[in-house]
Amino acid sequence: MLSAQKTFENDNLKALSLFTGAGGLDIGFHRAGFNIVACIEIEPLFCQTLKRNTGRYFPEDCRIICDDVRHIDPACLGIDHVDVIIGGPPCQSFSAAGRRVGGVTGVLDVRGSLFEHYCHFVSYFRPRAFIFENVRGILQANKGRDWQEILARFASLGYSLFYKVLDAADYGVPQHRERLILVGIDGGIFLFPRPTHGEDSPDHLPYVSAYEAMKDLQPEDEPVYDYGGKYGKLLQEVPPGMNYHYFTKEMGYPEPIFAWRSRFSDFLYKADPDKPVKTLVARLGRYSGPFHWKSRKFTLAEFKRLQSFPDDYELAGTLNAQLQQLGNSVAPRFSEALALALRAQVFEEQQEAQLLPGNYRLSFDRRKSIKARHTRLKRLAVEDKAVLQPPLFAYSGVHNPLPDLQVQTSNADQIEESVYYFRYTSAKKRFALKEGEALSAGTFRFEFRRCRDILHIHVSKGTMILSDMAPALEYQLVFRFPLRDGIKKVLCSLWTTSGNDVPLAWDAIELALRKYSNYHSLMDIYGHFTEPHPIFSLTCALKNKPADPIMRFAAYFADFGHTMTVLPAEKLKQIMGLESPVDFLETVKDLRQLRFDVRVHETNLTIPQGMFRCCYPFTLSIDKQISVSWKEREHGNHRLVL
Description:
Elements: E1 14-18, H1 24-31, E2 35-41, H2 44-52, E3 63-66, E4 84-87, H3 96-100, H4 115-125, E5 129-135, H5 145-155, E6 160-167, E7 178-185, H6 210-214, H7 232-235, H8 300-306, H9 319-328, H10 332-346, H11 364-386, E8 414-426, E9 429-432, E10 443-451, E11 454-461, E12 473-479, E13 489-495, H12 502-516, H13 523-526, E14 536-542, H14 549-556, H15 560-563, E15 567-568, H16 569-576, H17 584-593, E16 598-600, E17 611-614
Parallel strand pairs: 1-2, 1-4, 2-3, 4-5, 11-13
Antiparallel strand pairs: 5-7, 6-7, 8-9, 8-10, 10-11, 12-13, 12-14, 15-17, 16-17
């Protein structure tokens, strides 16, 4: 709940809002007595939300301008002057989500360059102050170069600049939401508001917990819900305050389901009622938290409380669209604290405003570091207790090859055998054959033969007799910990001559994971490519000479170290053993069609032109668990031919 409307000596301080969104930043400034003269927002649905709340949380005569800020001439707005400009350009190109999809594009992305248009408005109106809000990831984008560029551009306008990362929970919001706040003033010093809650507050007032913020909205004797879907049954097991990490080996789960850091931190995240929740995000997947401690989704009314929006604030659109607007917003209680600090210092209001000393270091980063060390120690303790023999390998960012495994088996060693038939219509589409269905072209046989703790997988054409030929490629996976059924090694042989069939070998390995463990995908045993935590070692042996170009590619990137590297286009031709001229981008497209996650500048702006990266040592799941869509960009008529 926001504070009651205050009265001020000067209630005619004009503020212009850019990139307004649902208006979270503006609500706080309005409560602090600023007159929001206009809001500029490109999304029509967000503009509907703003219009519904004029006269209550915006002035009655506030202009809602639904347009792209890049196309607006400030001189045509008919506004004579403004005292403050506020806004937070879209942050996706600097966010953690951006890092997880392959790098922070930052100012290279059109969304990351919108600060230039913010500067244009500041340059035209010359307000006495401006507030620029963004995610803290902006500080590290492209090794800090983007932030230095942004600072230099604002400094060129002649403003004194002050910036700090602040946590909304420190200001009474029941949510840990860290944001970078840049304040520019026309001369002088600006001090940020002192926290009202937490360790850095004057009276060490406890944080506002999730339950405290919404206790009047909680039904009495509410049952624990049975959340549906593929992973829904797991939610009841998750302790409050935890997420999918609860089901990892590192946290002591007896039959692990996920690898450490293989998902976003909000996956299966359940809120702790006695603490603020983690950051609310804009786009909520089916298993994206925070979930209520009763194993259900929070209601819209509860989400408003977690984001400190007024109960009667009207949001346009569907429920998902309303939640997205809330997740994109600045928490109004937090923005009100910023606005009051601005009034006290820049506009010399005679009011109480407790401020932080300029060199004060807030404690939340230190607390996070302590928590991370505690989690690491817990993981190590669990690992030491669980491992009864030395690890088979240690991953240090480079591949540790293992010797070829020579396996002698007898009928007495064989525990079980399973055979599966699939018809592939393309690299991305397959159908399981029904019992008695005739084999035909495009049909493949997956044979699983388990011998003690080793699983042998043979992938071949459905009608092929394996004794008539030798395999073309063999993968060997050695697990750091045995899988659920005691399997320590997987040996997968591909008995075809076409490199186009390499994805089938990985399909068979993934099928084995589901059969012999609780893991659902290769991601669950490897982790995300930006921070892999593999629980297996991998080698790949080519048996045919000369080897198929795609098989050569697959073998090269079976080395974990090679997936960590961005390579020049010329290296692709060398890896694949190609002699005739090849079109670089067309070759990359062909590999991506086979589900190799190959990234180039056309798919990720952080990769330089003429470079590429293969992100995983395996092909992506045929279930399309992550997107590998190709985004064409204009580069004239130039084509890179190798």
